[in-house]
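In the design runs reported in the main text, the only information available to the sequence generator was the tokenized backbone. The following block is the verbatim input for one such run; it is reproduced so that readers can re-run the procedure and compare outputs position by position.
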């Protein structure tokens, strides 16, 4: 046996945001998943600070960050109906 056949390579884990075994390579882990966004989900490359994805803006007539569910009432995440939109911009309760 020659010296090369006795070599053993041990690689570390892939860095955060990547998947793989570190030996055969590391691939950017997809950030988007089903239900992540009400609107379109856009993957953020590994190494960029954040959640791994961003959501496009809520549809017309809705407010919010675009993440999670569509709702008729304000919530911490998602898109919710803008009360002024359906009343031609008038939010008065008269």
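Verbatim output:
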């Amino acid at each position: 046996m020659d010296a090369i056949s006795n070599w053993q390579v041990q690689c570390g884990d892939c860095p955060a945001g990547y998947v793989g075994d570190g030996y055969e390579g590391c691939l950017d882990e997809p950030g988007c998943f089903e239900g992540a966004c009400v609107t379109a989900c856009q993957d953020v490359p590994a190494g960029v600070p954040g959640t791994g994805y961003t959501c496009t803006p809520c549809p017309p007539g809705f407010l919010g960050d675009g993440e999670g569910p569509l709702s008729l009432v304000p919530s911490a995440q998602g898109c919710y109906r803008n009360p002024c939109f359906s009343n031609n911009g008038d939010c008065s309760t008269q």
